[in-house]
Amino acid sequence: MAGTSINTCFFSTSNLGTSSLVLKTHNARAVPGKLPGRRSLTVKADVNYVNADQAKELVAVEGYTVLDVRDRIQFERAHIKSCYHVPLFIENKDNDLGTIVNRTLHNNFSGLFYGLPFTKPNPDFVQSVKSQFPPESKLLVVCQEGLRSAAAAQKLEQAGFSNVASMTSGLQKVKPGTFDSVGSTELQDAGKAGLVTIQGKISAVLGTVLVCAYLFITFFPDQAEKLFQFVPAG
Questions:
Q1: C-alpha to C-alpha distance for 81 and 182, rounded to whole angstroms
Q2: How far apart, in Å, do the first and last CA atoms of the chain sit?
Q3: Which residue in 32, 106, 229, 231 is a FRET match for 186, CA 20 to 30 A apart?
Q4: Is residue 9 among the annotated active site residues?
Q5: Residues near 232 by Cβ (< 8 Å), separated by ≥ 6?
Q6: How do residues 183-192 score in pLDDT, each as one tens digit?
Q7: What digits encode the pLDDT tens for the residues 30-63?
Q8: What is the pLDDT of residues 66-92, one digit of tens each?
């Protein structure tokens, strides 16, 4: 008589995200005179995706450790106090022809405007985390935009870590004061650099000048008219 198989899935939800428990049992073909076949059990814990407020609760209440996976430059600009840093991407300093060409193009465009280094996947990412944390550790993975943290959390889950959470919105959406931080800027501004930052400052100055000019013309129209008389005619 052929054996039977049973697949059972249990799902649970909470205000901190969704997790699932997958239970699988398999009965092999029954052999006369012997006990029923072996049974296997597989437990799978999914990544818990949370927003900034939920992430703060995980750290403060449930004892999660913050794992920052951003590149070194962003981490040095600002990071959550007492967090651990293991970058998902590292600076690419390879000197083969293809890398040199791509790095030059990057530095003249994305690197110039956004201040981003030319990077490559960190081949030692998972092993570096394993060397610092046991598989049952509670880890909250963060990055600047939420993309690298999601990818890193998936890698850790696949490597056997069972209590992994990822902050979906990234540090750029964290309100000041949500976490104690260290660095020369606010957490939400750690990803801003290059010409974009300079452009932003120039825009702010021009905006202030235009507002002041508008107020001056509105409240002192006579003085403004006299000033306009000194402007050379085109």
A1: 6
A2: 100
A3: 106
A4: no
A5: none
A6: 999 999 888 7
A7: 434 444 444 444 445 689 999 999 999 999 999 9
A8: 999 999 989 999 999 999 999 999 987
Which tokens in the block code for residue 227? 């000033």
**What local confidence, expressed as pLDDT, does residue 163 receive?**
97
The closest of 180, 154, 173, 160 to 88, measured between CA atoms, is 154
Contacts of residue 8, defined as CB under 8 A and 6 or more positions apart, other chains included, come to 23, 24, 25
CA distance 99 to 106: 10
Residue 47, amino acid: V
d(Cα 141, Cα 67) in Å, to the nearest integer? 5
Query: Can you tell me whether residue 7 is helix, strand or coil?
Result: strand
Cα(51)–Cα(32) distance, integer angstroms: 56
Distance CA 19, CA 102 (A): 40
Give the rounded percent of residues in the chain with a pLDDT score beyond 70.
56
d(CA 90, CA 74): 12
pLDDT range class, residue 93, cuts 50, 70, 90: confident
Calpha distance 10→21 (Å, rounded)? 5
Task: Give this prediction's pTM.
Answer: 0.62
Catalytic residue among 9, 83, 143, 212: 143
User: What's the token pair of residue 96?
Assistant: 């083969």
Q: Dihedrals φ, ψ of 25, to 5°?
A: -125, 140
